[in-house]
Amino acid sequence: MSRLIIVSNRVAPISEGGPAAGGLAVGVYDALKETGGMWFGWSGDVVSAPPDGITLEERGPVTFATIGLVRRDYDQYYRGFSNATLWPAFHYRPDLIQFDRHEFDGYCRVNRWLGQQLAPLLKPDDVIWVHDYHLIPFAQALREIGVTNRIGFFLHIPFPASQILLSVPRHRELVEALCSFDLLGFQTAPDLRAFCDYIECEANGSIVRHASKPCEISAFGKTLKAAAYPIGVYPDEIAALAKDGESGRDVRTVKATLHQRKLVMSVDRLDYSKGLVERFRAFERLIEHQPQQRNNVSFLQIAPPTRSDVDAYRDIRLQLEAESGRINGRYAELDWTPIRYIHRQYERPVLAALFRESHVGFVTPLRDGMNLVAKEYVSAQDPADPGVLVLSQFAGAARELNGALIVNPLDIDGMADALATALAMPLADRQARYREMFDSLRENNVSVWRDNFMRDLRD
Ligand code: ADQ
């Protein structure tokens, strides 16, 4: 079989079977090991002078190919256009979009430069799979220098409705660039629909739709295919990690400090798309309106900072610190802190074990392509005494996890009510919901996501 070449902004720091590896990284790495191939992307280093070339590291049949970025490229391509323009726009926050034409030029320039670095390493029958919004112009860049290999693209974040996308200057160039891929993958059917709507209504393109095959798109003088491929996890592996971690130090500490109280838990990157402020307020509403919950339930929010050099991320951090301080100041008692807000990264086995310990998984993003935390929470539960997932209707995962209590993350009272329902839910109901969700996670695990995408790309 032909080699697989994965291209992503960052190359995952894989230590085989190691705790840092998330579902996506493990799924993609598995595919690479099966077919042999290469994982190419930014090393994560900002370097003082343009790098001499790519650093290659062989691990069995897989080559990790990484390269540093100079400060200007980092600022324009990564911090600028990717994270201050595309990320807010694609998460339906046009109010947060910052656009600078030099950053857009830098974004396109870095994509071309990365393409030029990769091209000499390619073999004629390699299949290339590009990931995420940092690399929208990557296929176009490769085509311009004569690369004819099959190239697919998977968008991990939502694809916005046309009216939102139109607020991004140069949107037409972005969508035209997307049409240089052979296959586009989206997380959910609504994301695919939003893309098709742009093609038909804004780009004068045409679409042939099929019931169980990717649709065929003609636009900008190109033809390509597109479909939804919801990303999954490996639920059995997560369940095993969670069980193993039950007696670990961190879990014992949390249990000891809970003193039999119930635990509501959330884990996110600290990002304004994750709905953290609204979530804190919903927990406050619960203890405000239901005094019997006070001193009987604690909320643990784990959220390590990310992208802290983008303004909007500094703002959300300050806002959350203020909210948790205010709520705790108002309700805390000598032996009870309502909200435990922890600003750091935990390893996967610890998170899995904490998920298993908690009575409610509270996952309420304002927008999210999929949200793997929701799937990991369900996977980690004890089948004999599972917790309840409270999930935002705006997470891609809400379309699959039918046993969750689905909430609107802007409806603070509705979220507080869902928390109360979850905390009081009888065992039989919890078990039925858990079983349905676990079975569906097993059926649509991350291998299924990867294999379906690769089948359609090779087709
Ligand atoms: P993210 O926005 O990062 O991913 P999510 O899917 O929830 O969102 O998390 C990705 C991984 O990071 C999960 O495996 C999770 O366990 C881990 N993680 C999150 N917070 C953590 C923490 N505090 N400590 C340690 N690990 C943590 C993007 C899109 C999502 C999409 C994924 C995959 O935004 O919508 O689901 O890609 O496609």
Characterise this structure.
- The chain has 459 residues and is an alpha/beta fold.
- It has 2 domains: 242 residues, Rossmann fold (3-Layer(aba) Sandwich); 209 residues, Rossmann fold.
- 44% of the residues lie in helices and 19% in strands.
- It has a 10-stranded mixed β-sheet, with helices on both faces. A 6-stranded parallel β-sheet has the order 13-12-11-14-15-16, sandwiched between helices.
- β8 and β9 form a beta hairpin.
- α1 crosses α16 and α12 crosses α13.
- The radius of gyration is 22 Å and the shape is globular.
- It starts with a strand and ends with a helix.
- Bound molecules: adenosine-5'-diphosphate-glucose.
- The site of adenosine-5'-diphosphate-glucose has 22 residues, from α1 and α13.
- Adenosine-5'-diphosphate-glucose binds next to α1 and α13.
Bound molecules: adenosine-5'-diphosphate-glucose
CATH architecture of the largest domain: 3-Layer(aba) Sandwich
Instruction: Report the CATH C-level class of the largest domain.
Output: Alpha Beta
Instruction: Sum up the overall morphology in one term.
Output: globular
What about the largest sheet?
A: 10 strands, mixed
Looking at CATH, which topology of the largest domain would you report? Rossmann fold
Count of distinct structural domains? 2
- What is the H level of CATH, i.e. the homologous superfamily of the largest domain? Glycogen Phosphorylase B
Task: Kindly provide the radius of gyration, computed on alpha-carbon positions and rounded to a whole number of angstroms.
Answer: 22 Å
Measured between the Cα atoms of the first and last residue, the distance is 13 Å
